[in-house]
Amino acid sequence: MSEIFGVVGAGTMGNGIAQVAARAGFEVVMRDVADDFLARGMSAIDKSLQRDVDKERLTAEEKQSIIGRIKTTTHTADLREAFIVVEAVTEDLQVKIDLFKALDGITNSNAILASNTSSISITKLGAVTKRPDRVIGMHFM
After folding, report:
1. How many domains does the chain have?
2. pLDDT digits (tens, 9 = 90+) for 113-127
3. Separation between Cα atoms, residue 90 and residue 10, nearest integer Å
4. Residue 67 sits in a domain of what CATH number?
5. Sequence-ordered strand ranges (E) for the chain
6. Active-site annotation holds for 75
7. Given 57, 101, 130, 139, the catalytic residue
8. What is the extent of the structural domain holding 131?
């Protein structure tokens, strides 16, 4: 099974999720619609990890290793090998439906598709896939 952890959305929630997954040792693919969003997300991760280096919770080498486990992309297809993909995009039902349809078409049928939504029905998102039993809500705070 793949050890690739996919994240869609490089904003506050997405980059935080990517950072947690990379710190846990997973190879992360973080996807967003534009390179500048990805750059901002990586900058936020860098700053967060640097705070931990400054507080001696993390070495500079560990920080670089964590950052090295995060790859960025604007292509949804680059998530095809992920064992899980967590979406953290705007709270817009149609945007999420379109994304879940796309992810369903490219990821392995055993992959888990997760949503970080705080208000949209997971059942509605699962219904647009061929794997509603593998669609979950996964709320990060």
Report:
1. 1
2. 999 999 999 999 999
3. 11
4. 3.40.50.720
5. 4-8, 27-31, 70-73, 84-87, 112-115, 135-137
6. no
7. 139
8. 4-137
